[in-house]
Amino acid sequence: xxxxxxxxxxxxxxxxxxxxxxxxxxxxxxxxxxxxxxxxxxxxxxxxxxxxxxxxxxxxxxxxxxxxxxxxxxxxxxxxxxxxxxxxxxxxxxxxxxxxxxxxxxxxxxxxxxxxxxxxxxxxxxxxxxxxxxxxxxxxxxxxxxxxxxxxxxxxxxxxxxxxxxxxxxxxxxxxxxxxxxxxxxxxxxxxxxxxxxxxxxxxxxxxxxxxxxxxxxxxxxxxxxxxxxxxxxxxxxxxxxxxxxxxxxxxxxxxxxxxxxxxxxxxxxxxxxxxxxxxxxxxxxxxxxxxxxxxxxxxxxxxxxxxxxxxxxxxxxxxxxxxxxxxxxxxxxxxxxxxxxxxxxxxxxxxxxxxxxxxxxxxxxxxxxxxxxxxxxxxxxxxxxxxxxxxxxxxxxxxxxxxxxxxxxxxxxxxxxxxxxxxxxxxxxxxxxxxxxxxxxxxxxxxxxxxxxxxxxxxxxxxxxxxxxxxxxxxxxxxxxxxxxxxxxxxxxxxxxxxxxxxxxx
Length: 507
Prior knowledge:
CATH architecture of the largest domain: 3-Layer(aba) Sandwich
Shape: globular
Structural class: alpha/beta
Number of strands: 25
Number of domains: 3
Helix content: 25-40%
CATH class of the largest domain: Alpha Beta
Strand order of the largest sheet: 2-1-10-9-11-12-13-14-15
Largest sheet: 9 strands, mixed
CATH topology of the largest domain: Rossmann fold
CATH superfamily of the largest domain: ANL, N-terminal domain
């Protein structure tokens, strides 16, 4: 018996109960969807899954292109008490075989062009049904559910009931399934609506993918829980973003979106005149991007910090100082501390391990009770694996992942500290610093640099400039110039790829 209903869709519905005919979704093709449209389509899909025999807690895997109908699929899962399992559209057969085998979905929804790929990935996961949903909204899921009732009584959910299953990126070891509850999503969305000042008058420019926390939970939670509207773009397209910015009030993006906007001469202060808030997350925002963006537009990008396991933890303030190089202050209901390896809280300004506690924090890893237990302290703080420091005003700065820490000659080196100095050098577009095995020092610092103009810099020049700016043990032993840094779908630099590629570099 659920005394208080935490079902996220129930709370979305309550916000639109008096305005079901409000248009909440406008696409780049000028298709319009009211809340009533979304409600009816998601009800039909929910009814169809029940008709097929799906039970509360069953997983529904989804590898589809972004579409309004895909959004209805997510809502249908919430309503029926099913667990939504979104997958990156770039995953190949071997990756899918692992995810399906681990998640054991009741059904899989995919693009019709990928049915052969999906079938070859199933192995023996016990999947009952494969359904299709294409980027244009067509497919067997919509066709087969069209006969179902447009009414569906949303299943009440408790705070800890499982709503979604997302997987870690798998940069080290096997990807882990992250169990996210209705309470996690609802509580975090409420905090963000308040922190970022969302109201029913807002229009969010949505150009993020929807297989990730940023585009699926954070963006949608803020808008639908506040009764706001969405300008729905199928992907980040610079021309469409510039076209629709004047009619929007908020944009969320990864740092790459903002650097691409700055590279386009059509992106001006006038274009962004109606925007009240630019938000950046999913990867670190460079301080020079922060400064250049403000110079061009007058807007100070609001940077925040989140994880798949926790949604959003901290945010620079809506009203108050947005400090470049920091991810701001803890959200309401979120506790953050920086500790040493013995879980002892460190002094202000000291780099250590970031730990988090709050209703936003996930309940555990799917089928991995031992990994879950070792990821939480005895007083229920989640060990994020991130390294950071908190200043005297409570602002958190991230210096890197613990797995990215370089120990050279017994001395700790945080890549972010070195990258900041390199990025300030003339002619450097961006950089990534990694550690590679070294016979003498244990690990050696290696810098990967993307130049503003190819061939304008050389290794000796960079090392010489660095020696004047940082301690000698932080100076890169080698400097490699590359065309682009490898990134995942959300713009995070994949240092594991660089480490693998250059593991034999140092002598």
